[in-house]
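Supplementary Data S3. Sequence and C-alpha cells for construct A.
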Amino acid sequence: MQILIKSVKIVAPQSPFHGQIQDILVENGVIANIGSGIAAEGATVIEGKNLHAGPGWMDVFAQFCDPGQEYKEDLRSGASAAARGGFTTVMVVPNTQPAIHTKTQVEYILSQSRYGAVSVLPIGAISKNLEGASLAEMYEMRQTGAVAFSDGLKPVQASGILLKALQYVKAFDGTVIQIPDDQSISGHGLMNEGVQSTRLGMAGKPAIAEEIMLRRDIELARYTESRIHFTGISTRRSVELIAAAKAQGVQVTCSVTPYHLLFTDGDLSGYNSFLKVNPPLRTEDDVQALKDAIRDGVVDCFATHHQPQDWDAKEVEFEYAKPGMIGLESAFGALRIALPDVGIDRLTDMLSTAPRRIFHLPEATVEVGATADITVFEPDERYIFSEQHIASKSRNTPFLGKELKGSAKAIVRHKQFILHP
C-alpha cells in the first residue's frame, strides 16, 4: 500500500525536513521518500491547501467506557473520535467495568486496538477496583503493556496508597497520573466556588481542594524521587506550585484541557450541563494563568479529558447531570482559538513530542525510514463545529455551533490511514 501526501509543510523539529514543503511517500507503513514532485502510480493521494504534517498527535487522558458502558463509547468509536481529531495515540483511563486493574483488562484493551489506525494504550489502575484501599497488580500490568498508572477519574485520596504507588513505579521508571482533587473538600460541589457560584446558588468546589492535593502529591513525589503527572490543572496557584517544584528538581509534569483554556465559571450562567466538568471551570484570572504557563513552558502537554455521556446523563437539572464532555474531535480547533499567539511548532511539540517523552514512549518523527505515524492538518481553516465533525457515540459537547480554527485532515499510522473530508 502506498500513500502520497502532496505539497505539505513538515512540522517536525527532529526531522531534517522541518519547515520545508515537500511530498511524503509512505509504503507499507514506512516513510519511503520525502522530496519534491514525487510520483507514485496507484497511490492514495492526500492533498489540499495549506496542509501541514507532523508526528502523530497523542492524548494522555481519555475515557472510552469499554468494557461496561459501551452505549456511551466503545474502543472502536473512541478510536474513530481520536482519528477525527487528528490523534494517532490515546491513553485511556482505567474507569471501566470491570476496571483496568489486572493484566487481563490490559490485554483486552491492547488486543482490541492493536491493528487499528489509532493506538489505544491502557492506563493501569493504582488501586484494586479503583477503591483506593490497596495496590492493584501494577507490575504485571506494566509487563503486559500499561503505559502509566492512575485511578483516573477517581483520584487517589489516601496518602499512604499514593506513596506506595510512587515507590512501586520506580522499579520500572513508571509514571503516576493524578487529577489533583481533595474530594473531602470538593465532593459536594457543582462548580467553582466563588462569585459566580454564589450568584447562581450552587454549591462550590473551592480552588484549595485542587491546590492542597497538588501540594501533598508534590511532596510525596519529592520524598520518593519518583515521577508524577498532574492532569487537568485549573488554577493560578496550581501553576505556581508546579513551576516551583520543577525549579527544585521534583520529577513533575502537567497537562491542561482545551476547555479550561476557553471557558470560565461565568459561562455557567445558563446552567449548561455540557459545561459541568471536573476539575470545574475556573475564573478568568485562572484561565489567563494557564495560558501564560503554556507560553512559559510550565505546562508540558494537553489532555482532552474526553468523557462521553449519554443523553440521559446531561439532559437533566444541572445538579444531577454527570460531569464531563467529549473533546477529541474539537481539541485542535479549540486550542487554535484559545492560543492564537502560540506557534504551530510549539503546539505540535505539546501534542506529539512532549507526551511521548513524558511517558517514555517511542518517538514519532517525519523522516525517511521511520515508521509512519503522521497527522496531516490545516492550521488556519475556520469552520462551525457541527454533528458531522463528531465520531463519538456521545454528543456532550458545548462546541456545537461554535467557530473553531484548524482541523485534522488525515492520519497515517503504520499501514493504516484515515482521510477526512
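Construct B, processed identically:
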Amino acid sequence: MSLLVVGLSHRSAPVSVLEHASLAADAQVKLLQDTLAAEPATEATVLATCNRIELYADVDKFHAGVAELSTLLAQHSGVGLDELTPYLYVHYEDRAVHHLFSVACGLDSMVVGEGQILGQIKDTLALGQELHTAGRLLNDLFQQALRVGKRAHSETGIDRAGQSLVTFGLEQLATGADVDAWAKGKRALVIGAGSMSSLAAATLARAGVAEIVVANRTAGRAERLVQILAQYSLTASGGGVTARAVDMGAVPGELARADVVVSCTGATGLVLTADAVEGALRDRACPAPLALLDLAMPRDIDAGVHRLGGARLVDIETLAEASADAPMAADVDQVRTIVSDEVAAFGAAQRAAHITPTVVALRAMAADVVNSEIARLDSRLPGLDGKQRAEVTRTVRRVVDKLLHAPTVRVKQLASEPGGAGYADALRELFDLDPQTVAAVSRADLNDTDGVGRGRV
C-alpha cells in the first residue's frame, strides 16, 4: 500500500485561498484523469468540499508522487504552485488513512461532529468509480471511511460536540438567542436548491419561520424543494411553513421582503453584491437587521456586506473564526480511539490482502502438482478402478492441504503485522512461484473487489 494524500483545508489555508482554489465538477473530472495519466499514480480520487480540497492516490514513489499531485492541484485549481505550496499538507500510508477516517468522523470539520461530510465522501467514491480512477485500495479505503464515520455517530455522542454548519451558522446570526425563538415568524429567502440549501430550508422550517422562498437557476429543482417543504409542513407539529419557488430574476425584490437569507450555490461569481444588498436595505420596511448566511465556496455574498449598517453577514470565514472557540465534547476522545483502532485494523487487512495472491498462486501450483502426479499414477497403474483412483486422489490432496494449511495461515497472520510485506516475497522465492501467475491473481482480485465495491456504496 502506498497511499498518498495532498491537500489543503480550512485548517491549513485562509478562506481566500480555499475560495480561489475551489474545483468545479468538470475540473475535478479532468484532475482525476490527469492524475491517473501521471507516472507515479495508479489510482486517484478527489475530495472537494466547501472547506477542503484533497487529492488521494496510490503511488509507487513518495517524493515524485508529492511533486506530481501538488503540481496537478495547482494547475487545475488555477492557483500558482508557489502560492499554493505553503498551504498544502501531505499524509502518507497509515497517516493518510488516519486523516481520512478523522475527516469522516467530523473531527477535522469546521464544526466538529458535523455529519454532512459522509455524503461528500460517498460522492467522492462514486465519482472515482464512475471514472474508473478508484481501484481496490481507494475503494476499500473510502468504503471503510464511510463505515468508520457511521460507527462514530452511532456509538458516541460526537453529534453533541458540534452542530451542522447550517445550525451553527444560524446560531451565529441569532447572536446567542435561541434559534427557534429568533426564527419564529420570519420570512426566509433560500438561494440555491442543492443539498446544503435544502438542509438550510428544512432547518429554518423546523425553527418556525413563516415563509420560505426558494430561488434557483433551475426551476425544477426549486419546485422539488418547495414540494418537500410543503410535505414537511403537513407533518410538522405546531403548524407549518408557506413555501414557494421563484426564478433568480426575482431575488432583488424578495431580498427586500426577507428577514433571513441563506445562499449556497455553485456559482463561480457573486450572487449578491454589496450594492444589491444595500438597495434591498433601503426598500425594507422591517427595522430589524437583515440576516445573511453564506455557505458557499467560493462565496455567494459580497464580503463588503459586512460593512453595511442594517445587515449581519455570517460566511465561511466567520464560521471558521467562531468554531475555533466552540466547546469540545468528551465524546471526541472516544471517537479518536475508534479512529486509531480502525486505522490499525485497516492496515492489517491491507497487508494481509497483499499476500493473498501469493498464497492463491501457491495453492494453484500445489493443485497442478497433484494433478500431474495422479496422471503419472494412471500411466503406471492403468488397472486401478474408478473407486480406487478417487480414494488415492483424495488422500494425496488431503496430504498437500494439511502440509500447506499451517504455513499459509501463519504467513497471513505474520503479513498482517507491521513490516509483514516481505513474507509474500519469501514465499515466492521459497516455492519458485511464477511472478506472472501471482500478478494474474492480483488483477483478478482487483477486478472482483472493484465490482463488489460498487455494489456496497
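The longest helix spans residues 331-380. Residues 446-457 have pLDDT under 50 and may be disordered.
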